[in-house]
Design brief:
It is built from eight helices and seven strands. With 229 residues, it is of the alpha/beta class. The chain has a seven-stranded mixed beta sheet with strand order 3-2-1-4-5-7-6. The longest helix is centred in the last third of the chain and has 12 residues. The chain has one domain: 3-Layer(aba) Sandwich (Rossmann fold), CATH 3.40.50. The protein binds S-adenosylmethionine (SAM). S-adenosylmethionine (SAM) binds next to strand 2. The site of S-adenosylmethionine has 19 residues, from strand 2.
């Protein structure tokens, strides 16, 4: 399992969630490419579960999994008072506790599928998705205002498209924005994630709003055809 800093710093994870795509352009793009209405959905690496919670009412049902128990607990708290058929489970995407063909669609938002090394999780998605099911992965694309805050050459997202394209995923680049809720919160998050150089670039920019691009990778996966992984 890949360590996630938000487990130790839920305060900063909250700032990140509030800063990411405030106009909700990304969920609208996912809905177009990989619809969830009436479907049995899996959210892989759900974190605090905001995406799973947002689709639960429309989906036939949603199971949200995360390898970190504290994230699953946050996810369950997040669901209190919301409607929809929903379950949150602690599980590793490489070894999912579900029968073959259990899901119509699976989503992984900024989770697990970081290019090379993600083959076991893709293999497991082949198993738990039904034939004709779809896997949709959202990842940072780079080449935007936000990534200008840190050194992009150190950021592996530039290598990821090749990994997905070699495995038959389509790629759609979605343009949205990143908006820090306040300078104090932006500074705290940027300092923690990217260090003092990035804080200086943030302060010099004179803005809290940055262009933000994500890649949306989709592929028909499922029906137990692991050769294609
Ligand atoms: C960057 S967070 C994204 C969380 C959430 N999808 C979101 O958009 O806020 C990545 C999440 O993936 C989880 N994760 C990492 N490796 C995993 C694995 N092998 N199986 C399941 N979850 C994993 C982490 O615990 C973390 O909660």
């Amino acid at each position: 399992m890949r360590w996630f800093w938000g487990v130790e710093r839920p305060d900063l994870y909250e700032i990140l969630l509030r800063s990411t795509d405030p106009e909700e352009i990304i969920p609208a793009a996912i809905r177009e490419s990989c619809p969830w209405a009436g479907r049995v959905a899996l959210d892989i690496g759900c974190g605090r579960g905001d995406f799973a919670a947002s689709i639960a009412e429309e989906a036939g049902s949603v199971v949200a999994v995360d390898a970190a128990p504290s994230m699953v607990a946050a996810d369950r708290r997040n669901m209190v008072g919301r409607s929809g058929r929903f379950a949150a489970i602690t599980a590793n995407v490489e070894n999912l506790p579900f029968a073959d063909g259990s899901f119509d669609v699976a989503y992984a938002l900024w989770a697990y599928f970081f290019g090379a090394g993600a083959e076991p999780g893709l293999f497991e998605c082949e198993r738990v998705l039904r034939r004709g099911g779809r896997l949709c992965v959202v990842q940072n694309n780079g080449g935007d205002g936000l990534s200008g805050l840190w050194s992009e050459s150190e950021f592996r997202c530039l290598e990821w498209p090749e990994w997905f394209e070699q495995r038959g995923f389509s790629r759609r680049i979605v343009d949205t924005v990143w908006r820090f809720p306040s300078l104090d919160q932006g500074t705290a998050l940027v300092r923690y994630l990217w260090g003092e150089g990035a804080v200086r670039r943030l302060l010099r920019s004179g803005t809290l709003t940055f262009s933000f691009k994500v890649s949306l990778y989709c592929r028909e996966v499922g029906g137990g055809t692991p050769d294609s992984c």
